[in-house]
Amino acid sequence: MADTHPNDHASDLFQTAQLGPYTLSNRIVMAPLTRSRAKDGDVPSDLAPEYYGQRATAGLIIAEATQISPQGKGYIRTPGIYNEAQVAGWKKVTDAVHAKGGRIFLQLWHVGRISHPDLQPGGVLPVAPSAIKPEGKAYTEQGFVDMVEPRALELAEIPGIVEDYRKAAQYAKDAGFDGVEVHGANGYLLDQFLRDKTNHRTDAYGGSFENRARLLLEAIQAAVDVWGADRVGVRLSPNSPFNDIADSDPSALFGYVVEQLNRFGLAYLHVIEGSTGGPREVEGGADVAVLRSLFKGTYIGNNGYDLDLATEARKHNRADLIAFGKYFISNPDLVERLRRHAPLNALDSNTLYGGEAKGYIDYPALVE
Prior knowledge:
Layout: E1 17-19, E2 22-24, E3 28-30, H1 48-54, E4 60-67, H2 84-99, E5 104-109, E6 127-128, E7 137-140, E8 143-146, E9 151-152, H3 158-174, E10 179-183, H4 189-194, H5 209-212, H6 214-227, E11 232-236, H7 250-261, E12 268-272, H8 288-294, E13 298-302, H9 307-315, E14 321-324, H10 326-330, H11 334-340
Parallel strand pairs: 3-4, 3-14, 4-5, 5-10, 6-9, 10-11, 11-12, 12-13, 13-14
Antiparallel strand pairs: 1-2, 7-8
Helix pairs in contact: 1-2, 3-6
């Protein structure tokens, strides 16, 4: 058979797909996107139901990273999922998405060392596997400030962190989400435990792959205990240096991690392919095609996808679902625009973080 242009196969992206117990309306996922618009008390913005509702034609929305505890916060005005006021705020969001026939998971987040005392209860140091200062700036009420050397978690504190994941998973259920994604990517706490650049521990949570992966797997188990495995996903970024993270052997480490994930029967594995928001190829990185083949379940590909790349990925079965990030910010009706090969709205980078309606709920849909 003669080879055809990739877009001749594009229809597959727009066909239904099974994800755990859910039939998704298409294979297009809205990636989790921090927008820093939460209200006081880290409650989702009053505009969030409209924002997410506008984007409910995605096969699946993964809501923005949401801290599991006050300690898990690393940026101003990011939402939480650890009290009843936050649950009530998120319930309006899930109701809005479900009213439009959409599906939405919540991403459970603990930033670890990617924080600042100004963002921590009582002005204390952020926590991490080891007391190693990250390069970079923290986003606080005072603007961007240098990060600090974190405090290494005591062994006795770790069960409490796992319990925070369990409670957050339950709160997400109370808020009407369809499932949760455990955020194990982008140099945040679980990723910090995984990598040998940031984890120098000598106890049961450091050293071997088994020990470094322990907290990630315990957090996943906590979520699975609440939801059942088929409504829990996990996000990894095996090759991303984001937030000053690295590992000496990512291929072996993440090969081990993915094989361990298989014992759960999770809803999906969501992989940032390459450097977060940057190049898809990273020198010396793990081969994501190998990780995809190791994982016995739905694989979501993420990073730099456009229609052609997504179509190509489906044509060659490199991913089951495709996550789009920034395109969803500026195109509430991204699915329809891709389906029609319609032009996309340009992104206003000045309104990505903070602010109110502008650059949040005012991007236009296609005019019929």
